[in-house]
Amino acid sequence: MYTDLTKGNIGKSLLLFALPMMAGNLLQQFYNIADTLIVGRVLGSEALAAVGSAYTLMTFLTSIFLGLSMGSGALFSIYQGKGEKEGLRVTVLHAGVLILGVTLLLNVAVYLGIDGILVFLKVPEEVYAGMREYLLVIFAGILATSLYNFFSCMLRALGNSTVPLIFLAVSAGLNIALDLLFVMVFSLGIAGAALATVLAQYVSGIGITLYAWKCSREFLPGKAELHYDRGILKEIANLSTLTCLQQSVMNFGILMVQGLVNSFGSVIMAAFAAAVKIDTFAYLPVQDFGNAYSTFVAQNYGAGEKERIRKGTRQAFAISGVFSLIISALVYAGAPYLMRIFIRKSETEVLAAGVQYLRIEGACYIGIGFLFLLYGYYRAIKQAEMSLVLTVISLGLRVLLAYVLSAWVGVIGIWVAIPIGWALADLTGLVYMKKSKKLRKE
């Protein structure tokens, strides 16, 4: 069940390892898509705007411990590639304690600062109460999400991408069933949608934790590893903190854009909420392919297989590019039909704004596809600072252009700013990769 990515056909191994990750993250999106679909259809556009804006906030918060888990996962893969089992177990211990501590502190902080967060996001008065109600419930799932992300990153880093998919499949189905029950049968409103998501998150979080404890004990610390190792903690801190910062900067930039979107009122908020779900769903496969590629690079980096990394990189960019172009064509052509999944046909203004967003950004998915590969590459070779640089370029430019262009041409300026940021970050990352001596032939 654990795949050794240092051997065998590269393209085939990458695709087979990535497929469960793609399917798993597509299922994970059902958490919020189920809320969006049911809330939008049953409770209307204002409730949809509240859930959509809350989703952007939760993505930002989740990115903090997700970044820590991804950074730790790169180290797990490197130790696995080296064959150092004891070092791997000590690293898992230190990473787990660090991430749990950060998660608990974050959970307390968001509950204490909920009203300040809503003011910062410029949430309109007609949406404020609904979004606050939703957040009070959804924040309770932060610990569950952290548990799931840590253990799924650990298992994937060691070559097991199937088990995380299984737990997500169960919890996604449960989330949809509970959404229908709480919102449509029990009429619990927006809080019911949030409660359904939280319960489903705990199923996946606790489930994967128990699986790791029962079935992957050889990778978990025993009595011999229960000690403080300053060197390993420093290594985790260096890579994980930079990866966390990269993820946080990326999602903070998105949060800044969400605040700008909110200033255009509930119609644009609702359109953005629905379109972002479609958008995220569409490019998730290339995001997960980038994460699979990162595991491939890290394992081979640990094993010293530089030529295999160079060959795999060429194949990974070709696969991601082809897939991105296909998805772009499908989203561009199907934008009106995709929007009508979430939005009532009578809400023409919301539909029109959402279609405009999808056709501008959806045509450029190759930019984000390449960027995910670059993030994974630099994280895997212990140059996470470069991933951070690319994020600052991509999101910094996106936020700056969004504010400048929206003041000039309206909301379309926000949509146009996104692919411009991707393109500049890609150019920077590819040029640096070409000139870097890290994996140059001896």
From TrEMBL:
Keywords: Antiport, Cell membrane, Ion transport, Membrane, Transmembrane, Transmembrane helix, Transport. It is found in: Cell membrane. GO terms for cellular component: plasma membrane. One of its GO terms (molecular function) is antiporter activity. CDD domains: MATE_yoeA_like. It is a multi-pass membrane protein. NCBIfam families: matE. The keyword Membrane applies. Belongs to the multi antimicrobial extrusion (MATE) (TC 2.A.66.1) family. This is Probable multidrug resistance protein NorM. It comes from the Bacteria. Multidrug efflux pump. The lineage of its organism: Bacteria, Bacillati, Bacillota, Clostridia, Lachnospirales. The chain crosses the membrane at residues 14-34, 54-79, 91-114, 134-151, 163-184, 190-213, 316-337, 357-376, 388-406, 412-433. One of its GO terms (biological process) is monoatomic ion transport.
